[in-house]
UniProtKB/TrEMBL annotation:
Keywords: Isomerase. Pfam families: Rib_5-P_isom_A. Its EC number is 5.3.1.6. It comes from the Bacteria. It is an enzyme of class 5 (isomerase). This is Ribose 5-phosphate isomerase A. One of its GO terms (molecular function) is ribose-5-phosphate isomerase activity. InterPro entries: Ribose5P_isomerase_type_A.
Length: 223
């Protein structure tokens, strides 16, 4: 039987080997990202970090990592995060942990963005995953009505707010034939402030399956 949590830990351990003293590191959010935070702390490097959620910031501080306020940061050296689904072109769906907007901002600021995952997250096409969309509460009904043209079914996360105070709607049954066009259509809806499509941000991925870690680099063969 595959131990997915063990594979997540292996992928995280491999990814944090890229971190060096004096780096500013972006910390992701979610169950896989927690393994990276723990592995990073275990290396006891002289680093600082920014976090994509309050939960990740609290965990990092509890393990002795200095966490800075990203509002005062324009660039990070390295960002490490998980993914809900990732294809061979390093395009991904993220946001199960609800932090996709902050994750995308930190990823865009990073000189290098790494995704870590167990092998179950590697897919041929992304359309089978649910796609999270972050919406201003003020625009809830309007934005959801517009989103209904892009998804077969929408499901609002009950009693949930992001760290930004927004709601999240998960879209099911969507067309992944033209991902850039879908991303553009989502952001063209007033009130939509973010979504879980990561099309160009990811530089590399460490994916572990059955105890073996594979590294994928954008534009290169797997290693």
């Amino acid at each position: 039987m595959t131990d997915r949590d063990a594979d997540k830990r292996l992928a995280a351990a491999a990814a944090v080997e890229e971190a060096c003293d004096d780096m500013l590191v972006g910390l992701g959010t979610g169950s896989t990202a927690t393994h990276a935070i723990a592995a990073l702390a275990a290396r006891k490097l002289k680093i600082q970090a920014v976090a994509t959620s309050r939960a990740s910031a609290e965990m990092a501080r509890s393990l002795g990592i200095t966490v800075r306020d990203f509002a005062e940061v324009a660039r990070v050296d390295l960002a490490i995060d998980g993914a809900d689904a990732i294809d061979a072109g390093l395009r991904a769906v993220k946001g199960a942990g609800g932090a996709m907007l902050r994750e995308k901002i930190v990823a865009a600021s990073a000189d290098r963005m790494i995704v870590i995952a167990d092998a179950s997250k590697r897919v041929e096409r992304l359309g089978g995953a649910k796609l999270p969309v972050e919406i201003l509460p003020f625009a809830r009904a309007f934005a959801t009505a517009r989103l209904s043209a892009l998804f077969e079914r929408l499901e609002e996360r009950a009693d949930y707010r992001t760290d930004n105070g927004n709601i999240v709607v998960d879209g099911h049954g969507w067309d992944d034939a033209d991902l850039p066009a879908l991303a553009e259509a989502l952001m063209a809806i007033p009130g939509v402030v973010g979504h879980g499509l990561f099309l160009n941000e990811i530089d590399a991925a460490y994916i572990a399956g059955d105890g073996v870690v594979t590294r994928l680099e954008r534009g290169r063969q797997a290693r």
